[in-house]
Amino acid sequence: MIFVPLFSIFVLVASGFLAKKFNVLEQKHSSIFINFVLCFAIPALIFDKVYHVNIDTTLINIIALGFVSTIFGALVALLLSYIFKFSKATMVSAVMLSLFGNTLFVGMPVVKGFFGDSVINEAIFYDQLATSIPLSILGPFILSFGAKDQVSLLKNTISVLKFPPFVALVLALTLKHFSLPEFIFSPLRMFEGSVTPVALFAIGVGLSFASIKSSYKALGVVLACKMVVPAIFFFAVAKLFGENLDKTWLVGLLQCAMPPMALASAMIMKAELDSSLAVSSVAMGVVFSFVTMPIFYYLFV
Q: What are the transmembrane regions (predicted)?
């Protein structure tokens, strides 16, 4: 039943948000939970799943189509930004937020809730190949069109190469050619169990809605171009080529329609572009996903 995973996700996010509202935690504390997930839980999950997964061309095609779908959404956001005569900073921010989705912290729990543990491998590969790696390459290039200071592609690439989930991905792909004893994966699976609850709780602690009023028009453009347009484009292209949308294809469809990425938002704020849009897009994107994900599930599953 679709209600169960959505209700579970809502409770975890709401718990973090209420913990902040009742002064149990402060908003800055969300970084502690996020760092735990990024440095321990997610790398453990990636290493275990990637080591045991079989990679085929279908999965690569799905990821490629998902990424092309988000590019299409970003181009629509650029066009609408011109039509609405947004400032350069807002225009660049809207394109950045429309291109990169929260395929890790939101995407993985959502697809796991809808389809079970069997799709975690697909979700991980999608996040790494269609979000994390492209962000390191395209992110600085996009921001350079609006940033006051030069954005370093080399510096951002080095950061990604040292990023624990990416390191875990490389190690898993390298060691797939060797037979590892199963007891190695026992503690890793204990870390894995904490990914969903801790990540969603951290999102709740970090949520802020204070900037929505000042950027509502650009916010509408970002949410539509990130969370609706890519899904429609993905479905249309897949059907055009006669693909039967099985579980793996549906993971790609949902992942390309995830809300704007928190890391992309942080990069926008660091580049001193439209910080209000960056913050409100991440917050409202999480909320809006409780509307779009059930709709897509009923329409396409």
A: 29-47, 59-84, 90-111, 123-143, 163-179, 191-212, 218-237, 275-300
